[in-house]
Design goal:
Blueprint: H1 2-18, E1 21-28, E2 31-38, H2 43-54, E3 61-65, E4 68-69, E5 86-91, H3 131-140, E6 142-144, H4 155-158, E7 166-168, E8 189-191, H5 204-208, E9 215-217, E10 238-240, E11 261-263, E12 284-286, E13 307-309, H6 322-325, E14 331-333, H7 341-345, H8 350-366
Parallel strand pairs: 1-5, 6-7, 7-8, 8-9, 9-10, 10-11, 11-12, 12-13, 13-14
Antiparallel strand pairs: 1-2, 3-4, 3-5
GO biological process, one term: response to other organism
InterPro entries: Leu-rich_rpt, Leu-rich_rpt_typical-subtyp, LRR_dom_sf, LRR_domain-containing, LRR_R13L4/SHOC2-like, Ubiquitin-like_dom, Ubiquitin-like_domsf
Keywords: Leucine-rich repeat, Repeat
Length: 382
């Protein structure tokens, strides 16, 4: 019995050392976020857990409990935060990532839309396709149907067949793109911005057969996943999927060896696949306003990369060889990240990169593209 008591005492001590799991409720932007965490965890640990839930960087979070601001280095237990505690989160302006705090409406329609006054009205009847219009499409190869209050792809569009080179369906109310789009076999540019397209309503099998497609723009929709079929678009030069609901990119993205521009900013992407290194032709990449905490080392395989936008992410460092191997890189936006200038200066190749970006900046000043304000790399000075 004495031995058993000692074992129980030992076990109890161990449990005390590891801390016990508690559930706290964090109030933020009109929502209640339940979080399970050890009471021996620090306030900083809690902030890290809140980052993907709120899109607010830890350094932009102010946690208030019983009228007092919680200190990062203190544990929850020492801060008297017990099971069932309610904590208020206040966000510092400018330190959001992933397009700001998550709102209820973010899960219905994209917030980045046309101004209400210029958006097509749902009760406005769809204009019929005239014979002359169809003949013009076939003659020019350009099908321009932006802002036409369309709820579906007109059947007449598919009759254009191989003569169609450009299809612009932006800013309509379209929810479904059928597999029949593969009849536009010579299509080079497809613009679907500002519709109501979701994962299951877009026929990727049909899109994947468009072997001549060079530009695909899906900005401002409700897309949460890019499927493996994206890798079949081997002629793609520009891919835009900004302001959607993406959480990751498929590994097949690396099959797009001719891709030059990739813009997936303002999503909820938390990881970039290693295969991104296969996109050897990339010149401009925009990962801004996502939930990234690191980049794959294979980024340094992008030898032609000139512009990399990373603002409003949870990044604290960059791949170690990015400056050494990405010898064309001259634009690097790190605003709203936790990467400091000290971190950048320690990377091999920093001096050469710094010279390139200063030269680039000077040329921009000469052509008056930007203001004459002091150049700011976007990294903290401290």
């Amino acid at each position: 019995m004495e031995k058993q008591n000692k074992e129980m005492e030992k076990q109890g001590k161990s449990d005390t050392d590891n801390g016990s799991t508690i559930t706290v409720t964090v109030k933020f932007s009109g929502r209640s976020l339940p979080v399970e965490i050890s009471d021996e965890s620090t306030v900083k640990d809690l902030k890290s857990l809140l980052q993907p839930l709120t899109n607010v960087l830890p350094r932009g979070q102010k946690l208030i409990f019983k009228g007092k601001v919680l200190v990062d280095e203190m544990t929850l237990k020492s801060s008297e935060v017990l099971n069932g505690a309610k904590i208020m989160l206040m966000a510092t302006q400018g330190l959001h990532q992933g397009d700001g705090p998550i709102r209820k409406e973010a899960f219905t329609l994209p917030s980045m839309r046309m101004p209400e006054a210029t958006r097509p009205k749902r009760d406005v009847p769809q204009a019929p396709i005239l014979k002359s219009q169809l003949e013009r499409w076939k003659a020019t190869g350009v099908i321009a149907l932006s802002e036409c209050n369309l709820k579906a792809l007109p059947d007449e569009v598919l009759t254009c067949g191989p003569s169609a080179r450009v299809l612009d369906l932006s800013h309509n109310l379209i929810q479904h793109i059928p597999a029949g789009i593969n009849s536009l076999s010579s299509l080079q540019k497809l613009i679907l911005n500002g519709n109501e397209i979701m994962d299951n309503s877009l026929s990727w099998e049909g899109l994947a057969s468009l072997k001549s497609l060079m530009v695909l723009s899906l900005n401002q929709n409700n897309i949460a996943t890019l499927p493996p079929e994206i890798g079949a678009l081997t002629s793609l030069r520009q891919l835009y999927v900004a302001h959607n609901k993406l959480t990751c990119l498929p590994s097949e993205i690396g099959l797009l060896t001719d891709l030059e521009v990739l813009k997936v900013n303002n999503n909820r992407i938390h990881t970039i696949p290693e295969s991104i290194g296969g996109c050897a032709s990339l010149i401009e990449v925009d990962f801004s306003s996502n939930l990234l905490v690191e980049l794959p080392e294979t980024i340094d395989k992008l030898k032609d990369l000139k512009a990399l936008y990373l603002k409003n992410n949870g990044l604290k460092s960059l791949p170690s060889s990015i400056f050494k191997l990405c010898t064309e890189l001259s634009i690097l936006d790190l605003h709203g990240t936790e990467i400091t200038m000290d971190v950048l200066r320690q990377l091999e190749g920093w001096e050469n990169f710094d010279e390139r970006r200063r030269s680039k900046h000077q040329k921009q000043l000469e052509f008056r593209v930007i203001s004459s304000a002091k150049f700011d790399e976007g990294a903290d000075k401290s």
